[in-house]
Amino acid sequence: MLASRESGGVPDELTLPVTAQLVRMRGTDEAAPRCVALRGEVGVAVECTIYTRRPPPCRDFAPYAPLGIGDAGCERARRRHGMAPL
């Protein structure tokens, strides 16, 4: 079963299959990655439109950001958008 088909999971229309068991969020594999579920302007104000249904990689990304502590993935993303590290 695809993760997006689990009860309360990511809506199928927001995903692309990687394997029979794995999906990725649309937009995350673009040259300038941007998840289709992200709304707003990076560096100004953004929000995840499926926050309560977000997949595990999103839940694990920058778990300390609310405390003002970044990790390597967070710092790469911030640098890509011209933002200072946390």
Structural class: alpha+beta
Number of helices: 2
The span between the termini is 37 Å
Kindly give the count of domains: 1
Strand order of the largest sheet: 1-2
Poorly predicted sequence stretches spanning 5 or more consecutive residues: none
| Rg, nearest Å | 14 Å
For the sheet with most strands, the description reads: 2 strands, antiparallel
What is the typical, i.e. mean, pLDDT? 85
What level of helicity do the residues show?
10-25%
Q: What portion of the residues fall into strands of 2 or more residues?
A: 15-25%
The helix/strand series, from N terminus to C terminus, equals: EEEEHH
Count all strands and give the number: 4
- Can you tell me the overall shape? globular
Which key features would you list for this structure?
86 residues, alpha+beta, 4 strands, 16% helix, globular, two-stranded antiparallel sheet, single chain
